[in-house]
Amino acid sequence: MIPIPLFGWLVVLLFGVPLAASASGDPTPSDCTPAIALRSVVDDRPLVIPEEEVTDAVAAFLCTGRNPLAASEEAAERGRELYRRNCQICHAEDGDGRMGPSLIDDVWMYDRVASEVGRFEIIYGGGVGVMRAFKGKLPAEDILAIMAYIGKLRERAAGDGRE
Ligand code: HEC
To answer: Model-level pTM greater than 0.90?
Structure first.
């Protein structure tokens, strides 16, 4: 028969370690109330993401204000295709701008757009004129994937010395 102390350690090993790991893992919405309140960059009206679009990545973004997909090659690859279909016509293949402003320089139409939260807000909630809101057209996580790809375009531009 296993002596109680040893059995106790087994319980700690089997259940305690995974529990401790999950407690220190990525933040979940319950770890961060209130989550970031998204607002339109144009008129400050609140932007609400429907619950069915709040994937783990979206929840982590709403918690930290940082794009959790920023370093994911896979997300950037998905973002590339989404960018090509939805954004390229106005922001150009390399993000240098055309009818819409450049996304690869550090000049922003709104101060807020310099941050990842602000960039999400203008894509999700729209800007003025032809910069439509992608809310309802692209799920929130797709916007994070596009932002990961825009990050790649910015790195590439910085590498070419034309930030
Ligand atoms: C029909 C043209 C058009 C399309 C398509 C379009 N945009 Fe824009 N975009 C614009 C214009 C024009 C602005 C400036 C809006 C303003 O001044 O409020 C803008 C602004 C932006 C900004 C802020 C840039 C800055 O310098 O502040 C970001 C980021 C952005 N767009 C990303 C995207 C992404 C990502 C997509 C695709 C999901 C997209 N846009 C699709 C025209 C477009």
So the answer is: no
